[in-house]
Amino acid sequence: AKNRVKVAVTGAAGQIGYALLFRIASGQMFGPETEVELQLIELEQALGALKGVAMELDDCAFPMLKKITCTSDYAVGFKDVNWAILVGSVPRKDGMERADLLKINGGIFTTQGQAIAANAAKDVRVFVVGNPCNTNALICMNAAKGVPSDRFYAMTMLDENRAKTQLAQKAGVDVTAVSNMTIWGNHSATQYPDFYSAKINGKPASEVITDTEWLKGTFIETVQKRGAAIIKARGLSSAASAANAVVDGIFNLTHDTKNGDNFSMCLASNGEYGVDKGLIFSFPCTTVGGKLKIVEGVKLNDFSTEKFNVTLNELRSERDAVKELGLI
Ligand code: NAX
């Protein structure tokens, strides 16, 4: 018998959803041998638009897409799913207070966590894209009683891909020459794209690119602020590249990592690198024999340690704020 996965996607009628669903249905995420059922979840007012997306999915006649469900009911949407991709959220807008932002998303991700625990398959894994994604994942994990905490992830894959391309372009090499590109910490402007541990053709990137000022300044800033730069240029936030990163991210979680390489994923700390237990933090990871592991022993020099601590402290303060609101 062929494998089959059931995948829930929230915010399915949004920008990222429109770029993501076709990639999942085409087999690019789970491989050409795996049949897919899509369980698409939207707010009630977006169900009309979602119907249109489902019609387009039908019109692709994807061989491996076996079923599409459209719903605004979490119990239906998360029923028996092996993967829950949480894209819908309320990201911060101009003038919004942080407490309000955390409260609104707290409501969404608490309810979704509870619905996942009550309805999803026993092996469910949860991949959070909607911002603030680390803290949304933290809230969801805490609300999903009975689901092991190592099943919750938040996405820094787009940041990793952005960083790889910046290094490749600066070095004048193909993007495939860049490996071990670790993003540490929060998916936010404090993230640390660690060029010291990145490699270009197997050599430390900081030896291949000798313009250290560029690495410490322009490179980091470009990656940290890329989302804002896309909004400025396009008038809309990253969507196709974000969807591509979801495909890459879940591919990395479900396929073994190339020997010696690693990828970036936010997951609950067990105390690695001094990160508080339970904090959803982006680490260098590998998948070996289907099992996700944090790569230990990556050296952090003084510069890296300083950057690392900034993003760690930001995540601690987000956690403290949601704790204060009683969300975790
Ligand atoms: P859109 O506003 O186009 O779509 C969001 C959709 O979610 C809407 O259709 C809305 O109706 C739906 N929605 C809202 N609340 C929901 C709920 N409780 N249940 C189900 N559906 C719900 O946003 P889009 O551009 O698709 O971005 C989605 C999220 O991704 C945003 O939070 C955004 O900040 C985040 N991003 C995260 C990235 C990352 O790297 N982690 C990068 C890209 C993106 O900025």
Written description of the protein model:
Substrate binds at residues 92, 98, 131, 162. It comes from Bacteriovorax antarcticus. It catalyses: (S)-malate + NAD(+) = oxaloacetate + NADH + H(+). Keywords: NAD, Oxidoreductase, Tricarboxylic acid cycle. One of its GO terms (molecular function) is L-malate dehydrogenase (NAD+) activity. With 328 residues, the chain is α/β, with parallel strands linked by helices. 43% of the residues lie in helices and 20% in strands. It contains 11 helices and 14 strands. The protein has helices spanning 15-25, 47-59, 74-77, 98-119, 133-143, 157-171, 205-208, 212-224, 226-234, 240-254, 302-324; strands spanning 3-10, 34-41, 65-71, 83-86, 125-128, 152-154, 178-179, 182-184, 192-194, 199-200, 203-204, 263-268, 280-288, 291-294. The strands form 3 sheets. A 9-stranded mixed beta sheet has the order 3-2-1-4-5-6-12-13-14. Strands 7-10-11 form a 3-stranded antiparallel beta sheet. Strand 13 and strand 14 form a beta hairpin. The longest helix is centred in the C-terminal third of the chain and has 23 residues, at 302-324. It is globular and about 55 Å long. Ligand NAX binds at residues 10-11, 13-17, 41-43, 46, 87-89, 91, 108, 129-131, 133, 155, 158, 187, 227, 237-239, 242.
Approximate shape: globular
Helix share, percent: 40-55%
Overall mean pLDDT score?
96
Q: Main sheet: which strands, in order across? A: 3-2-1-4-5-6-12-13-14
Radius of gyration: 19 Å
Please count the helical segments: 11
Q: How many strands, which pairing sense, and closed or not: the largest β-sheet?
A: 9 strands, mixed
Ligands, deduplicated:
ligand NAX
Share of residues in strands: 15-25%
Outline the low-pLDDT stretches. Answer: none
- Helical/strand content category: alpha/beta
- What is the succession of H and E elements? EHEHEHEHEHEHEEEEEHHHHEEEH
* End-to-end distance: 41 Å
Number of strands: 14
